[in-house]
Automatic annotation (TrEMBL):
Lineage of the species this protein comes from: Bacteria, Bacillati, Actinomycetota, Actinomycetes, Mycobacteriales
Family affiliation: Belongs to the GHMP kinase family. Homoserine kinase subfamily.
Protein name in the entry: Homoserine kinase
Keyword ATP-binding tagged: yes
Lineage: superkingdom: Bacteria
Coiled coil: none
GO BP terms in the entry: threonine biosynthetic process
Gene this protein is translated from: thrB
Length: 311
């Protein structure tokens, strides 16, 4: 039996961008970044979904129930046995699309956190309950097919993630790492776009054992570097599993990573690219970087999503 939420509930949420992999942790390490999408959702009596979008992607995303935020709200409510007769959804987007900073994951998390807020707002009226962090990780990762970006946007900070099973029955899990307060992040946002599905096709099905062992060791070191030994960041962000195979498809990004690492900065491709992420404890002078195809953005490491208003 489906519980219909009353009209007039309103929730406003703010959800961060994310960077996945952080070098060696392919599909298992992620970091929440202080770039945010804002979503406001109101339940209404009129059936259907009405949606507005301003900012990033405003001219390219659908404005109906097929929008990822709308799909995620519907999925989150259904998970709790609830639904809304109609929804008014207003999105203000700052997270760049198709640049490797988790815009799709953030959209899914925005919808699910909004659904959770609506369920919480209706608790005293019809007895619904907000979704747990574990549920938010699972449901948002189902949209992505892997949990690294989604879990970072749900939990904030840095995350380690893992998957049990495959396909529709996969179970996604994550835990937050407490990032050493000395660590800061700088994103070089690429002006060009990239498709995650296309860049994944460039990766081989098999890799040499020595490369697999190399990445296993560097992923372990990354946990140490992120949590208490940032002096290890340069070594902790080395990779042999994915960045080299994708380098030709995003040459400016690969060149920028090489330039920054040669100067001693822990630079990696952010997710599937083409944005470049640097983790550091000392300032990066703009004059020290030649990156005409990128916009340099110094960003905080985010604590995760915020329910700005729920009533």
């Amino acid at each position: 039996m489906t519980t219909i939420l009353p009209a007039g509930l309103r929730v406003a949420v703010r959800v961060p961008a994310s960077s996945a992999n952080l070098g060696p942790g392919f599909d298992c390490l992620g970091l929440a970044l202080g770039i945010y999408d804002d979503v406001t959702v109101t339940t209404v009596d009129e059936p259907g979904v009405r949606l507005t979008v301003t900012g990033e992607g405003a001219d390219s995303v659908p404005l109906d129930e097929t929008h990822l935020v709308a799909q995620a709200i519907t999925r989150g409510l259904a998970h709790a046995g609830a639904a809304a007769a109609g929804l008014q959804i207003d999105c203000v987007n700052a997270i760049p699309h198709s640049r490797g900073v988790g815009s799709s994951a953030s959209a899914a998390v925005s919808g699910l956190v909004a659904a959770s807020g609506l369920l919480g707002a209706a608790a005293e009226i019809i007895g619904t309950q907000a979704l747990s962090d574990d549920e938010l990780v699972q449901l948002s990762a189902e949209f992505e097919g892997h949990p690294d970006n989604a879990a970072a946007s749900v939990l904030g900070g840095a995350v380690v993630t893992w998957t049990d099973g495959e396909g529709e029955g996969a179970r996604y899990s994550a835990r937050r790492l407490q990032v050493d307060p000395r660590i800061r992040a700088t994103a070089f946002i690429a002006h060009a776009e990239s498709s995650t599905s296309q860049t994944r096709r460039l990766l081989p099905d098999e890799v040499p054992r020595c490369d697999a062992v190399f990445n296993l060791s560097r992923t372990a070191v990354a946990v140490l570097a992120l949590t208490r030994e940032p002096d290890l960041l340069l070594a902790a962000t080395e990779d042999r599993l994915h960045q080299g195979y994708r380098a030709d498809s995003m040459a400016p990004s690969a060149e920028l990573v090489a330039q920054l690492r040669a100067a001693g900065y822990a630079a990696t491709i952010s997710g599937a690219g083409p944005t470049v992420l640097v983790l550091h404890t000392a300032d990066i002078p703009a004059s020290a970087v030649d990156a005409p195809s990128f916009t340099m953005v110094e960003t905080a490491i985010s604590d995760g999503p915020t329910v700005v208003d729920a009533r």
